[in-house]
Design brief:
CATH architecture of the largest domain: Alpha-Beta Complex
Distance between the termini: 13 Å
Number of strands: 19
Radius of gyration: 20 Å
Structural class: alpha/beta
Order of helices and strands: EEEEHEEEHHEEEEHEHEHEHEHEHEHEHE
Strand content: 25-35%
Number of helices: 11
CATH superfamily of the largest domain: Medium-chain alcohol dehydrogenases, catalytic domain
Bound molecules: zinc ion
CATH topology of the largest domain: Quinone Oxidoreductase, Chain A, domain 1
Low-confidence stretches: none
Oligomer: single chain
Length: 362
């Protein structure tokens, strides 16, 4: 198959012929139809987050089941599916607790030993977040495969796998935003726009979107923002105070991944407000918060990994909300790229040109 392989960080990925090992018991091979280009891919292309090269990036995918290993009854070849990324061992403390987004399999767990699956001669190539979607095919455990209804386009399905799941889950599962709230959203990329539309969906009264690019703030308005702040020339904390009669926001979502914006999100809260760290901050970044003020104001700061989602439960409900016209997902797709244009897709993401760019396959 063809795959885009990252051999050196910050260097162009190489689109080349590689070998994918066949699925074993409990696994599904999927022909990829659409794969979103996410900031997490970009971060691993750009910086050291612990992923090991060479690597096939991409983790936001929909496709068609191509082959199944022994014991897989859930799907058959030809079925349309959305993929969840990462591991869900089903046996660790967190999986048993119903928090599979925190899955911590033991180091000798079989699901970790199944890699590398992609080979170039005698050199193994890693699969990002146990997916590796910038390729024609991938192999995942059947537990990470969720059926995609016939009437939902592959592009929409792919977005459900990360951008929608992370943003929707941050609002609905992690923060549990209440109707009538004031919600601040810092960063209006693919995930941030889904935080905005999920906040609108659950009945937030005011949604204040923050970005440094006016085109992103235009997107934010289309997805339900009631107020916009351009942080390149406006002070976020004082604007939020002014918009809320001096109180501050009930919830503040940081979807940028910078310590300063996390601090600004926290400082923009009312007493008892909740700040949610959704973005992927640089390794080693630290926050400066006033713990005395934290105690006196009963403010909360929390993180959320992958929107605290349980794919088997949450993917179908996001897909149903899309089918009911309550989540705008087609509108997120702003540009399509062929696999050979993968490096241009990363450039467009970094330049802030797209709500979501997608790699599409014939
Ligand atoms: Zn992602
Ligand atoms: Zn687990």
């Amino acid at each position: 198959m063809k795959a885009a392989v990252l051999y050196e960080r910050r260097a162009p990925m190489v689109v080349e012929e590689v070998e994918l090992k066949p699925p074993v018991a409990g696994e599904v091979r999927v022909r990829i139809m659409a794969a979103g280009v996410c900031h997490s891919d970009y971060h691993h292309w750009n910086s050291e987050y612990g992923s090991i090269l060479p690597l096939v990036l991409g983790h936001e995918v929909a496709g068609v089941v191509d082959a199944v290993g022994d014991g897989v009854a859930k799907v058959r070849p030809g079925d349309r599916v959305v993929l969840a990324f990462g591991h869900r061992c089903g046996e660790c403390f967190y999986c048993l607790k119903g928090e599979p987004y925190l899955c911590a399999p033991p180091a000798d767990a079989p699901l970790l030993k199944r890699f590398p699956r992609i080979w170039k001669g005698d050199r193994g190539i890693n699969s990002f977040l146990a997916v590796g979607a910038f390729a024609q095919y991938t192999i995942v455990p059947a537990t990470n495969v969720i059926p995609l209804p016939e009437d939902v386009p592959f592009e929409v399905g792919a977005l459900v796998g990360c951008a929608v799941a992370t943003g929707f889950g941050a609002v609905v599962n992690a923060a549990k935003v209440q109707p009538g709230s004031t919600v601040l959203v810092m960063g209006c990329g693919g995930v941030g726009l889904n935080v905005i539309q999920a906040a609108a969906l659950v009945g937030a009264a005011r949604i204040i979107a923050v970005d440094i690019r006016d085109n992103k703030l235009k997107y934010a308005e289309q997805f339900g923002a009631t107020h916009c702040i351009n942080a390149s020339h406006e002070d976020v904390v004082s604007r939020v105070r002014a918009l809320t009669g001096g109180f501050g926001a009930d919830y503040a979502f940081e979807v940028i991944s910078h310590p300063k914006t996390i601090e600004h999100a926290y400082e923009s809260l009312r007493k008892g407000g909740v700040a949610v760290v959704v973005g992927m901050a640089p390794v080693g970044a630290m926050l400066t918060l006033d713990p005395l003020a934290m105690m006196r104001t009963s403010r909360v700061i929390m993180g959320t990994a992958y929107g605290n989602i349980r794919p088997a439960v949450d993917f179908p409900r996001m897909l149903e909300l899309y089918r009911a016209g309550k989540l705008k997902l087609k509108e997120l797709v702003s540009r399509r790229f062929g696999l050979t244009e993968i490096n241009d897709a990363f450039r467009a993401l970094d330049a802030g040109e797209v709500a979501r760019g997608l790699v599409v396959f014939d």
